[in-house]
Amino acid sequence: MPESFPQDCWLYKPGHKSHYVQCNVMRDKKRYQAKVELISPYSLRVTTRAQAEVLYYHDAVALQLKCLMAIDGDIQYCPESNLLYVKTNGPKADTKGAWFSAYLSKDELAMCASSDSESGYFIK
Fold it and tell me: Exposed/middle/buried for 28, CB within 10 Å: 0-12, 13-18, 19+?
């Protein structure tokens, strides 16, 4: 279970923040429409036509809220990259179609505050 506040965590490991390079590299991978259900503060069930699995995310509650407010209910999951994409309002008023990405983990989360800051996964 993570021991820091999600907004203070800068790990780029699965279950934590996604880095724009990760998203850029994986953007053309196959995505499937998904439904997301909150299981605990750190876990969600992601269901597509082909599968349903429990995945972990540092701030599952905030991610679930984003999913509930997804534009046109558009939530997509890429099992190959473990990235969940949620269509949100854009950065400017009345702009629609921006995507929020969440890097999900198949394993329970690492302890954020105790991670090695020299590993390249922690940038702050």
Answer: exposed
Query: 51, 38, 116, 120: which is closest to 82 by C-alpha?
Result: 51
Instruction: List beta partners, residue 55.
Output: 44
Nearest C-alpha neighbor of 61 from the set 123, 7, 112: 7
| Cβ 13 vs Cβ 59: under 8 Å | no
Each residue's pLDDT tens digit, 53-84? 999 998 899 999 999 999 889 999 999 989 99
Which residues lie closer than 8 Å to 3 by C-beta, 6 or more apart? 111, 112, 113, 114
* Token pair of 15 as six digits: 């279950």
Tokens of 47: 């269901």
Radius of gyration from C-alpha coordinates of the chain: 14
Q: Hey, what are 119's tokens?
A: 């590993």
d(CA 7, CA 19): 14
